[in-house]
Amino acid sequence: MQQVNIFWFRRDLRFNDNCGLFNALNSGLPVVPVFLFDKMILTQFPAPDDARLTFIHQTVSEMKRKLNQTGRDLMVFFATPEEAFARLIQQFPVHAVYANTDYEPQAIARDRKIGELLQQKGIGLHLFKDQVIFHHNEIVKSDGNPYTVFTPYSKAWKNKLAQNPIRHYDSEGLLTRILPMAPTRLPALDEIGYKPMKVTFPKQTVDPELLRNYQQTRDFPALNGTSKLSIHLRFGTISIRRLTVQALQHSETFLNELIWRNFYMDILWHFPQVEHNAFKPAYDKIEWRNNEAEFVRWCNGETGFPLVDAGMRELNQTGYMHNRVRMVVASFLTKHLLIDWRWGEAYFAQKLHDFDLAANNGGWQWASGSGCDAAPYFRVFNPDLQTQKFDPDLKYICRWVPEFGSFSYPRPLVDHAFARNRALEVYKKGLNDSL
Ligand SMILES: Cc1cc2nc3c(=O)[nH]c(=O)nc-3n(C[C@H](O)[C@H](O)[C@H](O)COP(=O)(O)OP(=O)(O)OC[C@H]3O[C@@H](n4cnc5c(N)ncnc54)[C@H](O)[C@@H]3O)c2cc1C
Questions:
Q1: Is the whole-model pTM more than 0.85?
Q2: Which atom of ligand 1 is the closest one to the Cα of 349?
Q3: Digit-coded pLDDT (tens) for 358-385
Q4: Helices 357-368 and 323-331, interaxial angle, to 10°?
Q5: Which atom of ligand 1 is nearest to the CA of 258?
Q6: Which residue blocks in 138-270 are alpha helix, DSSP H?
Q7: What is the end-to-end Cα distance of the chain in Å, rounded?
Q8: How far apart are the CA of 211 and the centre of ligand 1, in A?
Q9: Atom 29 (ligand 1): residue with closest C-alpha?
């Protein structure tokens, strides 16, 4: 039997402009594409109504259907990577496994382990850069150390891009190099523990007009002023290279947001400890109040601060929240309520369809003040002023908090001026104590 190479889809669920897939298809051997509903990852997402699984299932099923039409297949497993590869190696004479690099600490550990297991059988694991424009040590300071401040990082990023124009990979044009085979079974969602959810996910494209207006509209949550592409960037259903080319054509401000995404991925890669600890260690000395009843009110959007409540209800009902409002609710939780940013981060991780460890952790540490290049600790967003600036007609608030202004709307959980002073005292004490 002829040897094959495997292509392992992970956060890159697309055929077009896929670097690892392109390299696999150019390897000279027929390719067997696989996707795993990884049992280890899924234990972290226990809610049966998690719509992200519907998104993945729909995407994978569509990819499978496309290959089946030409007598090929995408093999889908519900298994741990060890189990899936053991089965694949039994079925095929595997020469090598190809995939795109994933930068999260758990994924790095998984790939190291699987790489070793494969190595013992003489099978190589080849990883490619696909999720970001630059990775590892491509954007570092002249002394080789990573940047921890965004502005110089973004300058270096743009300079590097000017010297290394973006290359695209015509993986889609090479799909006939996939091994012809009969369709295998796709596990149904309920077999892997999830309910199919009726959700309309954001579309995969962005209107150039929206990008041209992005700078003016992006901060107003009532407007349709941002791309809503985050879920697609998260699961790789669009190519970051193609989107970056669009950004270069239409909007520097939008390009900067894509660079923030790259920045936080680099931070997580260089400083994996941020997954559990404050980037600035002194901030782990802050004595959080961690009042559980107040946390529940925050989660449910019942704080009596309408912009905070609108954001949390948008999140609970749609799996999405506008960026401006993410900043406001995160500041409110960590500063007004003095609840550990890790609680909010974990809640977002369960609810956000675009949840991404690097961006979520970066966003939370930014809001709590503990992150690299974070908001200074004494900057406490005033939710009312934020409303006046960014939702002056209360359109966003009224959309998500219909009872706003009536007797049934809760009274504020805390007085703003009181909470602000309390936050400043507690932060100051924690930070001074640790010096
Ligand atoms: C507390 C907090 C938590 C967050 N959690 C996540 C998360 O889990 N996943 C996530 O993708 N983003 C997260 N963000 C960043 C940002 O809010 C979302 O990327 C954005 O709201 C998604 O909407 P959009 O696609 O319309 O964004 P657009 O404004 O259209 O931006 C385009 C893309 O740029 C990237 N991007 C934009 N802003 C940021 C940013 N500040 N940091 C990193 N990448 C950015 C995203 O990939 C986004 O899709 C978080 C921000 C905060 C303050």
A1: yes
A2: 8
A3: 999 999 999 999 999 888 889 899 999 9
A4: 50
A5: 34
A6: 150-163, 208-217, 230-235, 240-250, 252-270
A7: 66
A8: 15
A9: 226
- Give me the residues paired with residue 99 across strands: 127
Q: How far apart are CA 2 and CA 391, in angstroms?
A: 62
Domain 274-433 listed as CATH 1.10.579.10: yes
What is the 3-class SS of 200-216, one letter each residue?
CCCCCCCCHHHHHHHHH
Average confidence score pLDDT of the chain: 97
pLDDT tens digits for range 146-182: 999 999 999 999 999 999 999 999 999 999 999 999 9
Phi, psi dihedral angles at 100 (to 5 degrees):
-100, 145
Instruction: Look at the domain 132-163+204-270 and name its fold.
Output: 1.25.40
Residue with tokens 């990008």: 211
Alpha-carbon separation of residue 200 from 56, 133, 184, 197 (angstroms): 13, 29, 27, 9
193 in the Ramachandran plot: left (φ > 0), alpha (ψ -120 to 50) or beta? left
Output the six-digit token pair for 13: 């669920």
Residues at CB less than 6 angstroms from ligand 1:
218, 226-230, 233-234, 257-258, 260-261, 264, 323, 326-327, 330, 348, 352, 354-356, 359-360, 362-364, 367
Q: Are strands 4-9 and 124-128 parallel, antiparallel or unpaired?
A: unpaired
CA distance 424 to 338: 10
Q: What is the CA radius of gyration of the chain?
A: 23
Each domain of the chain, given as residue ranges in start order, spans: 1-131, 132-163+204-270, 274-433
Burial 140-177 (b: 16+ CB within 10 A, else e): beeeeebbbebeebbebbeeebeeeeeeebebeebbeb
Query: If residue 9 lies in a helix (H) or strand (E), which one and from where to where?
Result: strand 4-9
d(CA 75, CA 95): 17
What is the fold, at CATH topology level, of the domain defined by 1-131?
Rossmann fold (3.40.50)
221 CB-near residues (< 8 Å, 6+ apart):
310, 311, 322, 324, 325, 390, 391, 396
